[in-house]
Protein 1
Amino acid sequence: MNRGPFIFLGVFLIVATSWTFVLFKTHQEVGQLTTVLDQDLGKYVPGKTTGAAAHGMEVYQELGCIACHTQQVRVASGMDIARGWGERQSVARDYINDERSLIGNVRIGPDLSNVGARRGEMNWHLLHFYNPQINSKGTNMPAYPFLYEVREVVGEASANALILPEEFSPGEGLEVIPKRKAESLASYMLSLKVDYDLKEAPKSNEIMAEELAVALENAQ
Amino acid sequence: MSDEFQNRDLPGIDQSLASDESIVKTHARIRREPSTAYPVLFFTCSAVIAVVIFSWFYARRYLGEENSYLHERADIALYNEWQDRPRGPIVYDYYAIGESLYTKMACVGCHQADGNGLPGQFPPLVGSEYVVTEDHTMPTKILLAGLVGPITVKGNEYNGNMAAYGPGLKDHEIAGLVTYIRKNWGNEASEVNADQVAAVRAEIGDRGPYTAEEL
Amino acid sequence: MNLIGNICSSLFPDLSGDSKNREAVRGIDASIRFPLLALIKSGFVWLIVATVFGLIGSIKLHSPGFLADWSVLTYGKVAPIFWNTLVYGWLFNAGLACAVFLLSRLGGNHAGLGVFLTISVTLWNTGVMAGIIGIMWGEQLPFEWLEFPAFAAPVLFIAFLGIGTWSLLTFRARIHRSSYASQWWILASIFSFSWIYTAAQVMLVCMPAQGAIQTLVNSWYVQNVFGLFIAPLAFATLYYLLPKTLGTAVVGYKYSGWAFWSWFLFASFSGIADLANGPVPAWVSSLGVIATFGLLIPTTTMSIQFLSSLFSRFSVIWDSATARYLFVGCISFQLVMYHEIFGALRGSLETTQFSLYDSGVTQLALFGFAGMTFTGAIYFILPRLLNKELPSTSLIDLQFWSHLMGLILVSIGLISGGTQQGELMNESTAEALVVVKTMQSSFYLTTIGMVFFLIGALASGATYIGIMLSSRTPEESETSLIKEAPELEYSAS
């Protein structure tokens, strides 16, 4: 214990062992996955996030949404499926197309992996980001008014102006226009749908039993 | 004690009650001497025993798990049955397959994302007579076996070398790519399915790249 | 003008009196005076910044409209700025201040390369500053405690290598043949951080692994920063300052080697327990749980060592500015490890997963265990560096009690509130809105706690400014201000 090299070696071995068994081994097991052919949809899943939704993913990162929201569904614990936050377990393969993992580990707000299926309307999200109190009264999600532009109505209201309830409206003769970031973020929300199955991802017992029964029936 | 508590005034400086050298030397001596700290030894050993027992049982129950996400035997059994349930034949979504493969197989590298290729180097796929033809076997053959030599596409000359993708891709993947290029960018041609690709593959057998004349 | 004179006399003490008194020790302190003052000053500045952002974040949790119009202060930016400033600003600076002081004193030699160390420290703090501006600018990465944009990482890494090299060279230049526990802990912590930071940056930024692996790397890194860097520095400080302030050898010191190796072995595997039922293989989380439980061994050993030593000289604790901080630090250590070990077991983990329980335990560990220990050490170090008394012991009192109050409130708020939140979220189908409503009182409690932290942080800053700017009294110009320390009492019984 009296020599630096001894401590160096010991700690190096420990950290190296930890890295090997925790990170490297897992990487070998589930870190080199590819897309697979989905039997129901007849295409390769998971697909990539493209277009405005891809930009929205960057906005999501930039604003730090991961500080309150996760994007993973669990089967064995919690009430994720009972709440309708998803239909099946989230597995490693679901995230292989993400350049940066947005899986998250804190939930002050709901899980978002299937928010596109739950709230499939662009307008709902645009209102929500402008002021979450509009459609989720009592929430502690902050407002993002800086993603919008408030300007004077010139002639007729713009086509993409938000239709706000009385108490949230900016005032007479003013309209709220979402900026590009708001629209991208909303597109990204709509793209968050896990609409494909994976063999390695179990669902809740009820759903699996149901699908099994249907499959056995059809086979006859 | 309570008197001291009330009248106590913190000193502006904590005097050391031990010199650095004596700390190092004394503790080194303690390490060399036989131990007298029995409580520490006792509780540490109890902790070791507790940890060993816990780890044994916990590892047995959870470390060699059959399934990563389910812990109860009944759930795992249901899951296995569900996994192996009889499935109908796959109905391929050829366009979507082709779309995902177009980037993955690096077609986009030469033929570009807009399908226009590069003038003089790589022929376009948009409106190409070799793609949007009634005879769907033409693009299929090119993909399966490759293409070399001069070729005229939409009036322009190209002289290149396209690799054969037949050996590396399955029938439904070739069908997907062909369908995608025949239906994207405004092209309007028929879909090609896996059986048709299989037929073409069987017909052409194992061969080298095509030339423009052969097609 | 007087102030400048005071600062100069603080930085360059010209002492009269018996020059033989503590001659060697004064020389050592003089050789590290500038880098150490830089570290302490930066530490206190970052502590104030961190508590301000912590307060803003806490207010936003119960009053989301607070400062919501400003895009640089949206909650998603405030939260990472709080954590990163707390860890890389306050804890790194304070912890490394302790490390620098300990290595120099235990080495027994004048430390060289003071300028090199000061430059490294400045570079480190520049990196932290750049990272924070990066987050505000919108360039943050979605990784816990690694939110600093990619451009900050090389700066921090090079700075850390500089500090590490200095530490290594100082250790090698020691005069005693044997080494003391503090030195092992410090060396090990410095080696560990270099490696885990490199591994994390490579696997997350340089050659990113696939999505789920990134989450795993993140969890591994976060727990390792605490377990393999911050906690070891706190242990090192405790091992040194307990004999120093109590005048008694550490009880049961013989087993320190076991505690050291078992801590490192188990702590390096323990963070991943939180990933239970997530998109990584189940054995990963189970391995984490076993390793976390294994931490019971070093925890037991060190708790008994520290607490026995403290209780054997209990009256001293309240007579010493430093020892009371160490005492609170040790008690916090107990509580933190209790929550870590039993909170990782499947039963409790599945209830508290994704809730703020984890945040509460971490804040107890960072503010309570590490923060209090480092603060106590700094109040021990500062007078010796400048040969002056602490300017106002009421300020120290204020800092201690507000910090303790803050600690209690924030811990209760987040730990019990988080448990409640977890129960509602994970064991019922209550709507997210209902869960938030139930958490309101916890959020308010946390905000009040944060206000106390801020008061404490400002008091520390005031102490630092006070000691630098106050004029030297006649006693403080004498070498006899600090007495020669006696030999350590120890009798083999």
Note: The radius of gyration of chain B is 37 Å.
Protein 2
Amino acid sequence: MPLFKSSKVIESQIDDFLDQVAEGALVFKEGVRAYLAGEQQDFESRLKAIASHESQADKLSKEVEAHLYSHSLIPDHRGDVLGLLENTDNIIDMAKSSLHQFAVEIPDIPTELHEGYLRLAEASCLAGESAVMAARAFFRDVDAVKDHLFKVHHYEREADQLSDGLKRRIFRMDLELARKTQLRYFAHNVETVSDQAEAVADRLAIYVIKRNI
Amino acid sequence: MDILVFLSSGLFLGWSLGANDAANVFGTAVGSRMVKFRTAAFLCSFFIVLGATISGSGAAHTLGQLGAVNALAGAFTVALAAALATFWMTRLKLPVSTSQAVVGAIIGWNLYASALTDTGSLTRIVLTWIACPLLSAFNAVILMLLLRWAIRRAKPHLLELDALTRYGLLIVGAFGSYSLGANNIANVMGIFLPENPFHDVHFWGLTFNATQQLFLLGSLAIGVGVVTYSQRVMRTVGGGLVRMSPVAALVVVLAHSITLFLFASARLEHWLASHGLPTFPLVPVSSSQAVIGAIIGIGLLRGGRGIRYNILGSISLGWLATPLVAGVMSFLLLFFVENVFDQEVYRTIRFRIDRQVVEEVERLHLPSEGLAALAGRDMSNPVRFRRRLSSATGLPENQLDLITELARLASIRVDPGVLALAGGRDWLTPGQWQALETLDGNSYTRSWAFHRDLGEASPEWRPLPDSKVNRYWNQDLRRKLEYLDRIFQTQPEE
């Protein structure tokens, strides 16, 4: 049964892809933690790891795309699935670029803000993970997608609030404006990962309705 | 006219059938983009050819509706009219029933030849328009709900579901094409069997008989119709009426097959009744009507918003128009063929009241007074004969029907060898065959007398009391007798 074989191959490619994104989100959180703790070596290795996850995810999503088109599989959901993969890929892209900015700019983060950045990174990571779970459920168990979407929205809101609180604290500290602006930029950068997760969730919500028609 | 010229209209009818009816089995698969048109066309043609040559050539299938038309030029014209009507509807991208086109064209022939039209066939056409889509829509809704439930429970991966649906569509499509070939080839080629230009071919110890060769030719015509012209109707069926998801596409073809199986299978009714189970009512069904019904069912399940009512309207008009157009065209073409080409388009059926008929009428305890007034005169117009009979005897309709049938003259010479040559021997039970052999060489001027003698020779030639369990046997028996009448028919002496 050649069709079953090729669909099995794509299934495992999609699963691998989602694994890469989920791991990327975890590595991102650990990278932020290592940076804040001043563990330079650990940070560098996280940076390398996230780059490798990102390029692996890119490669897999391209392969899935090529497979879906060349075998003309899932004609009614092909566009949706490709859109979903692209958006999910943005999560890890954003995480990588955010971590990369830490390496480029080496921001000097006051110790009293460390906790705030850590919690923000954690919320963003959880939003990303939940988005990956929602995407996984879309392929197997459409009814379960809603539960994961709810979590994505929850963590995104939390990241929003944390980032907002962090920015308020930054601008009320006795620092140079240039430094304040840089610190705000990093808070925003870490938060963007959760925004990407929300973009995935928004798309999924529509795809689920389409699948149920 | 040469047999090849006559064959051409059968081939044209086959081509039209392929162009229109392939959409019933593969339309939704192609419309939902699950199967490429090329793949569908190849598979469909292949299985149509297989179905027609393997299952279509059995004696049980070779009667065809056109068997009622008793002259070759008439059958040619009737087939041509049906093909033209179907072709016209195909050009309009409308899925219509080819067999309704054939029935419509036969009614046209009946009117032209002033033969008696079986009023049942008109009722059947109308019932098919209404009952068949309703039943099919109902089946589709139930099936869709069941499948949704099963998918929710089994939770297959999106891609697994895709592969399963695709295989499902291919398998159901292949089966559908096989039965399309087996069931329709008789309409396309059946009438040409008596004038079959082919001869049996033997190779590697296998026989490829003349009927199979003729049916192969006809099925190739259907296949060519599928490949060259079926895409238009497929588009209407597959997405023109309601946008189709792959699962819905599968539900439609399954629901259509189930409708055909449950509500049209006398064999199933017999099986259920003989096991003491409740039976489904048998209603006339048609593939095209069943598919459209199932699609509407899916549309209604989604709240009815996605149904394109203008297309539904055109399809319904197409259904009304098909038998009507075929009938009118048949009538006009018959006039043309008879008067311009000087061809015999119908063989006159004669009626005569004589001693044999009167004796039989008395034996059946029917009133025979008044029959004497009509005795000794041959009449060739059945409508007029019936009218005279009515005024002479004043009998009720059903008795008039019976006496008209008794008075119909036939010319039958029993020759079991001819039957064996035509491959009909396998259809009969050993008892029936033996009984037939005892009548070898007998001649009859009335088919009922032939049937009565067969019944006397073996109980296996007698109809059973009317009941659901016996209905299948009686139907089969009737078809066998009709087949024998046709195969033993000789030129009547003037």
Note: The mean pLDDT of chain B is 87.
